[in-house]
Amino acid sequence: MKHFTQFENISLAEQLIEQALQYKIDSRKHISKGLGKRVGCIFLNPSLRTRASTQIAALNLGMEPIIINMDKEGWALEMQEGAVMNKTTVEHIKDAAAVLGTYFDVLAIRAFPTLTNKDEDIEDFVLNQFKKYANVPIISLESAIRHPLQSLADMITIQENSKAIKKPKVVLTWAPHIKAIPHAVANSFAEWAVGCGHDLTITHPEGYDLDPQFTQGAVIELDQKKALKNADFVYVKNWSAFNDYGKIHSTDSSWMLTESHFENAPEAKVMHCLPVRRNVELSDEILDGPRSLVQKQAENRIFAAQAVLSKIII
Amino acid sequence: MKHFTQFENISLAEQLIEQALQYKIDSRKHISKGLGKRVGCIFLNPSLRTRASTQIAALNLGMEPIIINMDKEGWALEMQEGAVMNKTTVEHIKDAAAVLGTYFDVLAIRAFPTLTNKDEDIEDFVLNQFKKYANVPIISLESAIRHPLQSLADMITIQENSKAIKKPKVVLTWAPHIKAIPHAVANSFAEWAVGCGHDLTITHPEGYDLDPQFTQGAVIELDQKKALKNADFVYVKNWSAFNDYGKIHSTDSSWMLTESHFENAPEAKVMHCLPVRRNVELSDEILDGPRSLVQKQAENRIFAAQAVLSKIII
Amino acid sequence: MKHFTQFENISLAEQLIEQALQYKIDSRKHISKGLGKRVGCIFLNPSLRTRASTQIAALNLGMEPIIINMDKEGWALEMQEGAVMNKTTVEHIKDAAAVLGTYFDVLAIRAFPTLTNKDEDIEDFVLNQFKKYANVPIISLESAIRHPLQSLADMITIQENSKAIKKPKVVLTWAPHIKAIPHAVANSFAEWAVGCGHDLTITHPEGYDLDPQFTQGAVIELDQKKALKNADFVYVKNWSAFNDYGKIHSTDSSWMLTESHFENAPEAKVMHCLPVRRNVELSDEILDGPRSLVQKQAENRIFAAQAVLSKIII
Q1: Chain C: residue nearest B59 by CA?
Q2: Do B51 and C74 touch (CB under 8 A)?
Q3: What gap in Å lies between CA B21 and CA B4, rounded to an integer?
Q4: How many CB atoms lie within 10 A of CB A314?
Q5: Which residues of C are annotated as part of the binding site for N(2)-succinyl-L-ornithine?
Q6: C-side interface with B, Cβ within 8 Å?
Q7: What is the pLDDT of residues B70-123, one digit of tens each?
Q8: Domains defined along chain A, listed by start
Q9: Number of other CB atoms surrounding residue B290 within 10 Å
Q10: B225-235, pLDDT tens digit by residue?
């Protein structure tokens, strides 16, 4: 594994999950493995869990993490090839990426989509510029279209909580939100859930189809009630429209899960990547009740990142 | 000691002072004590001394400090229980606190008061949400109503500079300022000075009474000249009105200490927590002269934090 | 060497270059040298290379670097001696410098010029306040008038790339820009290039003379074409006017280097400190072609900083 930016294959996924679960039991078992190695964590956007868990994962391996808030501490990045830089951007991404590649053994990058320039977002422009120019392994800390460390943590959480279930029914349900939200978490979750062999159903209001490259292999069921039936795990997430790119088509609050939604799925566990807008995306009732796995997902972010870093620095 | 958020009792205070003074002599004597332990330093407000001294204290114990500027790097926090989060806040404090509690062995929190919502400030809402939901020891890096690490450093400084004096006369004097300033430093200083058995007098213009829960045991003397008489230590601090909450009632510059104020207290030392507005709160003459202990207080912040962390991670 | 804020003498420069080149071969050879020592990196302005390379340099010596973004995380600094601080500044630089001096073994400071107050800039006010009050060694991470770590990295890069050339012809050429830019990089480069015995020619449009204290020993040639003839190294940099302080007199794009500028200097290498405004200061053609040394300069920033820290903490 050189980079970690997406789901690759089930064998690698199982290997990472197994390694993560070992680190969960003994987080410092490889404390000397990363000695003298450095990961640069480059943030072009805010972050709480990703920021903290990636640093901790690196420290657990004896690595030195260095955080750079590129958006606030560094220089405004120019993204366009061949640009005449006579406006507000100060440094071209290809120069910044190349320099950071000489400074670090691994680079971890967070770069959200524009949600306005669909073509640039779909080609995952910023992440791929780093891949192209940095010349070191790249880890995605959430890119324009994927959030693979989150999905790996989600797969770990599903495995931990489905010991008796052979092939759990997993439902990804759209939830209301007041802002236009990226597709990365939903895309990645679908990619990983199908890739890991789960039985995935996706439900959302009309007009909210995700990019089909991520949802193939999943059942699409626009009736949320039908979709939720017999669910073992329900992953809740808002996203903006993909076809009518970045637009909000619905804020229908009946899509927000409450206890009454689980009539036909009494044992279902509920997942969310956080941060969550309480009582908009998901009710207090669910988040504070026994169905919620959200804290376990967040905790598993450490061990997901640790497994990935460990595999990369071998 | 689980948390460190306020004065507890004189025996614990003396223990912490003694430990801090030992660390001042040999700062790395317990360099292996904190190995593999992590403190998350969560800032909702600016900080210089607290930020640097807490990191250094942790490193002196072999701990790994991780800084999170929640206000700038993370997500805007919702504070209200049961809120429908359809406005500007992105993450509920109870979710953030719980996640951070799973990531760190100790959490240190800076959260200033609103100075507009008196009820919320008085119950020290943000700090207590962390206490309630994080499930790990909490250290206050200045809360809405207290700044105990500052006060511990102040008590260390008084002890170091009063060897021959049995029960020093300590005066806390209000000073002018141009902005509405929190009560935390003044409250805590009163709480610790009385708690540690010092002879405390508080002086301020009319209308500047502090919350009485912090000042019991102190003499209140509104005549600054009388208050300063025979003082051994004079602690200078501005605060806004408490009763007429958060308001500025006086900017009377005669309250700013100059040499002439020390006619009847020739040996008095002057203290301030910094940052100080020179020639508004306190004159250059005093700050740059031999009475000033402000740099010693700042230095002792390291050893105060180190003693507290050391006690917590036992 | 107590401080590192400017060129001192050729013997010290050669020593630092030699040490840096050794660290480039074996970066962790002195990994125990800085154990228990701390460098505080204080940023009053943005930074990418300086921020990352200084941290890495410190870690390579076993030191603990702590970053403080004073402009964003700390308090607004008052610069004027004797100021009545009743406006927007919260802490006087002399208090902040003294505190930070008690917290760290070495302080590294980034403080750009105002470009409006020439007198304050010329006396390098902020840096010198730290020197005056911090009482520990000071490293400049770029001050109002110099950027010595950049220049040291530049000298290393010239040495590495001029093995067969006895006394390389080095040309510092002004380049267009859309904003008023400080003189620090140009000043320092001239100071170090002459100091290190290089044959330096400086070329710029009329009205762009640098402060003569930095350019003595260099040839000034206003005709860029003549200046570039037979150049071995061409250092490209914009700066604003010095005499008509901080003003932009020219944006003449013919000063931007393209391949056609190298007719009479076919072997010339091109240098720039980064960040670079592509196709404004320097063409893609040059930056992406074989003449460019800009990535090597950036990489050498680590070893320049490491040599300096190493010398200081002996």
Answers
A1: C64
A2: yes
A3: 18
A4: 6
A5: 142, 177, 237, 277
A6: 36, 38, 40, 64, 66, 68, 70, 72-75, 78, 82-87, 90-92, 95-96, 98-100, 102-104
A7: 978 889 999 999 999 999 999 999 999 999 999 999 999 999 999 999 999 999
A8: 10-146+301-312 (3.40.50.1370), 162-292 (3.40.50.1370)
A9: 8
A10: 999 999 999 99
